[in-house]
Each structure stands twice: as C-alpha cells, then as structure tokens.
Specification:
Radius of gyration of chain A: 25 Å
CATH class of the largest domain in chain A: Alpha Beta
Distance between the termini of chain A: 69 Å
Low-confidence stretches of chain A: none
Oligomer: homodimer
Shape of chain A: elongated
Number of strands of chain A: 12
Number of domains of chain A: 3
DNA sequence: ATGAAAGCGCTAACAC
DNA sequence: GTGTTAGCGCTTTCAT
C-alpha cells in the first residue's frame, strides 16, 4: 500500500489540493461542511502528511537534535527525559545523537544536520572537542544552538550548566574535613569550561585549608579511549593518595575496579567522591558519595530556551543559566 | 547565511543544475574537468544537500528508527551501540525514540514515522502493548520492520531474541540448587513472548526438581508506573520468599531497596537473580547475579537484517534469530 | 557530456 | 470559500 496524498483525497472529493491542505490544517476560511468531509475521508484513508514535503516547503521541521557524548550515562539519560518532556508538550521532535566522545563523530553528526534537517541543536560537546568550527557553522546557517553541561567559552550561544565550582568546592572540602591530604583529581578532557571550573574549585578548597595544591595530583583522562584503566592504576600506585575526586562517573567506576584489584579498602584506605547521577550509587559496595547534577532540569531548561530561540523573530538574547547540584554523602567518604 | 543550493553552484559556474547534481554524485557521464570544478566550488561554498528535497524526490531517506522502551537501561544502551555501529558502516542514520513503556507514546511515535520519514523501523515494544494495529500499519506502508527482544507473536516480521527459555531455566535451576524452594517470579508485562518464555522456563525448572510451581508466586508489574514499589514490598512481605527471579533490572534494583528497608539480607535471607546488563552489577552490595543478554550483538544483528530487507528488491524472507545469554554468578545467589 | 523539463507532496500568495 | 499557480531543492528521464 502506498501512502495516501493530498491529491488523492482531493480527487475523491472533487475539490482542489489546496482546499484539502487548508481543511486539514483547520483553516478558518474553509466551509465547515467541506472541512468535515475532508477530515473524515482523511481519517478513513489514514492520511499522514509527508514530512519531507512539508519541511521542504516551510523551511522548518519542528525537530531538534540532541547531541550527547554517551547515552549510557545516567546524567545524559535524564537530560534526554527533560528535553523530551518539553518537546512533547511543544510538539517538537527530538533526534538523539551520541558522539561516543569522539570529535570525528561529532563533526559527522553536525555535517549531517547542516543540510537543514533540524531547526535547532542542543549539544554537550565531547571531551576531545577543541576545534569549534563545526559549531560555528551551525550558527552560520541560522540553526539555533544551545549548549549544556559540557560548554565551550568561545561559542556565542546560550549555555546551561550546573554550579560546578561551588559543588566541587563543597566536595573537596568534604574530603579535607575527613582528614584527606593527598587527593587525586581526575579530569575528563582539559579545555571544557566545566572541567576547569571543577579544577579551580579543587585548588581553591585546598588553598582554603592553608595547603598548597600539588599539581602533579591532577590528571586528565580521555574517555574516548578504552585502555585508560592501566594508566589510572599506575597513577594510583605512584601517588598513593588518600582520596580521589572524580569529575565523571566512568572514572569512579574504574576506581572501584582498581581498588578491588589492589586490595585497597574504600573508604578506609581511599575515600572517593564523584560527579555522577548513577541511580544505583546507593547500592554500591561501599555506597558512593556523589555530586548529582540537576540533569532533568538542565534538559528541560535547555530545551525551553532552544525552542524559544527557534520561535522568536527578534534578535536573540544569550542566556547563561546555572542550576544547583546536590551533594549526597554516602559511605565512600566516611571516616575510615 | 542561507544554505547554498545546487542552483547557486550552477549559476556561478555557468552550467545547469542537473550537471551539478550529477557531478556531486560522481556520475560517470560528467567530464572529469567539469566534475573537479564543481566539486571544488561545492567544497569551497560548503555545500550540504537538503535532505528533505532528496528524500522527497527519491522516496528513500537512508534513515531508520530505533524504538525502545527506555534509554536508561544498559541493555538498550548497548543495543543502540550495536545498531549505530552497523548503520554508520552502511551509511544509514538512526533516529532513537523511547516510549517510556507507554503504549500511547509508542503509537504517537509510529504515527510520526508513518508519513515516510524512515525506510525501516527497529522496535522492542513496550510492556503495555497489546493492540498491534500500529505495527501492522507500518508494514502496510511498506516500511520494513524488525522486532528485537520484546517481540510479539502476532506480527509477521523478522525477530531477534535471546535464548530466554534456556537461560531462565539455567537461572532458576541455580536458585533451586542453592536450596531455594519459594522463588518469586517477577514479570514486566504479561503478553510478550519474551516474558512467556522466561515464565515457562521458571515453571519447567521447578517441575524438573519434582516440585509443583506455585502460580501465586508469579506476579506481573507494569514498568510504566512509578508506584509499584509498594506493591512489590507487600508481595514480598506476604509471600516470605527465599529467592526472587526478576525478569528486568528495574525490579531487581527495587528488591535491593526493599530488602534494605526490611532488613532482609541478600543472599542469606533472600537470593536474587535478574535479567540485566547493568555494568556496575559487580560492584553492588552484594554483587548481583545476572543473566546478561547479548545486547550489542542483538543490535548489530537486528540492524543488519533490517538494512538487508530495506535494500533487497525481492520478497523478504522472515528470519527468527536467537542469540545466547550469559549467566554471571555473583554473591547475590551465594549459599546463605 | 550537458541541458531542459518534469515532478516528488506540500503550502501559500494570489485570483475570483 | 475555493481554485490556480508557483515553487521549496533535488533527481532523473529525455533530448541533443
């Protein structure tokens, strides 16, 4: 069975295509009787408009893209939920793309989008991203762009982040208050504003204790590679820390694996804290202290902002919104 | 800046649109010189074809939809990876949709697709789905369909599942071998073939021990609702089981919560096993015995099959492929 | 080897 | 209130 078109409906009813089109968009200028007849037949024939034709004609697709580094991550999973909630309400469709933390894939996805497939893009860039030309290209094409969480200084768009500095400060101070003095700080990607804020907070917290941050305790990992566990293990063995601050969940899970392997007890030998939205954090052994970002809210806020920008006719105002994280203290930071 | 079109390139070079079109698809009938000029200018102007125009004209979109119940679930997350791996290689795009286990959303998504947006659909139906007319409608429109994991008997398409019966049999026998005699069986949705296979295995395993399955120990939960935890708790309190077999991860996590609340020790008081691909299962307290489905392989197989069906001109042969699960024994089923 | 022209299915300006 | 027409950007006959 082929898809039924406006023309077929028009022919069957002896009216013109434009009348059918107008009737189905419930235009006020169509006779109520005709409208009924058309709508009924459309329903009967199970008419569904061809989205390509409509988009081609109207130059809008009522669709946005959501580009994230990794779907298998509770933070992004909840962001998606937030975005979808808003988009469902406002009748937009969401295309979800994941970059797997690969800059190449990020470019590929954006190239795919640039033809005009979407009206707007929501992105949390991958940790590899340094060259930002692909993002600027989006803006050049008048596709609206909003960044969230993993944002970049140099792009002129609205940005939604969490209060990374304040919460990392609080997290580091928690470790310090438990007596930790040799705290590893594990980053994922180096040039993201998000990571820099967290690192600055880490240093400032240590300074606030009258101590000097040891920069050799700070290490950047590339989440796009698989083989980093060996590096991490070597780093832990070399530094013999009494605590680890992870900026991303994946690193924290890696620490669990390594500590088990090395026979290091959490929290007795090493305390652990991480940015993470992992739902089962409370059931881990030991339960994991997390800084949970307001993922769902970030998704909702970002989507609302993007749609507002898409639909506004006036020059857009750039927003910079910060939402608060929640520090959830669990056993992994208990007094050893 | 507007998007550059074929016409603009044609005008600048003093050739016709069709020549440009052919040059850019690397047609053999275009002079090598002209082709070069056109391709260079296209690159220079950063030309990107309008996907709507092309799809409208060609009646194919090189895009497939992947519909899953929940993104926040490691099983589906890995399926996505498998699907994307195949699609990237074959130059297809993947639109990911989640139904949140809601039949209404499933219908809405499929209606959205029916206009011809995609060439094929990969679906794992939500546990609510009983009416299958929306799926048949896809087939009516000549959109290819492949079901995986959550499959339905009554739909005539290719299906990829895991060996649910055999692995549930093995899982149940594991519990029986540890001395468990009052094993709850928690289902998610009742009419899915997948669930029925698992339930049959559960019963058969008990029969094989010369025991009679107590049907009152089998209970179906609706994963689309939030408030089931109270039900689950009441059920556990009422039945006082010595083991629980969960068909989905979410129920197992619920069991952890409830056992903690009730002061029941896993595995001493209650043993626990579940179908799940949860990556941190090994770090849970206690570590969780899982039956892990070959998620990545399922995704790859399903995508390959779908693309083959899309591209084949001949009448399609229906495949029914089964892949093996892995039982990973951990502490939650240890001798108490 | 290249161009002219038709048309995919839809919307919207312009008639009447 | 309804029809006619043009055109969105592309591919693809059919000419030449």
């Amino acid at each position: 069975m082929k898809n039924v078109t406006l023309k077929e409906i028009a022919d069957q009813l002896g009216v013109s295509v434009s009348t059918v089109s107008r009737a189905l968009t419930d235009s006020y200028e169509i006779n109520i009787e005709t409208k009924k007849r058309i709508q009924n037949l459309a329903k009967e024939l199970n008419y569904h408009p061809n989205p390509f034709a409509a988009s081609l004609r109207k130059h809008v697709s009522k669709t946005i893209a959501l580009i994230i580094p990794e779907i298998s991550n509770n933070f992004f999973t909840r962001v998606i939920k937030g975005v979808e909630a808003v988009c469902q309400e406002k009748d937009y469709y969401v295309l979800i793309y994941q970059t797997d933390e690969s800059y190449q894939k990020e470019r590929r996805i954006i190239n795919h989008l640039i033809g005009g497939r979407v009206d707007g893009v929501l992105i949390s860039v991958c940790s590899e991203t340094e060259d930002v030309s692909h993002l600027n290209e989006i803006l050049d094409r008048d596709i609206k762009l909003v960044m969230f969480d993993r944002v970049l200084e140099e792009i002129k768009t609205s940005k939604i982040t969490s209060n990374d500095y304040e919460s990392a400060l609080e997290g580091t101070k928690l470790l310090l208050s438990k007596g930790c003095r040799k705290i590893l700080f594990l980053k994922a990607g180096s040039h993201l504003t998000t990571m820099q804020n967290r690192e600055n907070a880490y240093k400032d917290a240590i300074n606030s204790y009258g101590l000097k941050p040891d920069l050799s305790l700070i290490k950047t990992f590339s989440p796009s590679e698989e083989l980093e566990l060996a590096d991490l293990k070597a780093f832990i063995l070399e530094k013999q820390p009494d605590a680890i601050f992870c900026t991303v969940e994946k690193l924290a899970i890696g620490c669990y694996d390594i500590c088990k392997e090395l026979g290091l007890k959490i929290p007795q030998d090493i305390k652990l804290i991480t940015f993470s939205s992992l739902e089962v954090a409370r059931h881990l052994n030991p339960s994991l202290t997390t800084i949970a970002q307001p993922a769902y809210e970030i998704g909702k806020t970002a989507a609302n902002l993007l749609i507002k920008e898409i639909e506004s006719k006036t020059e857009q105002v750039l927003h910079q919104i910060t939402l608060d994280c929640t520090l959830i203290k669990r056993d992994s930071t208990n007094k050893g």
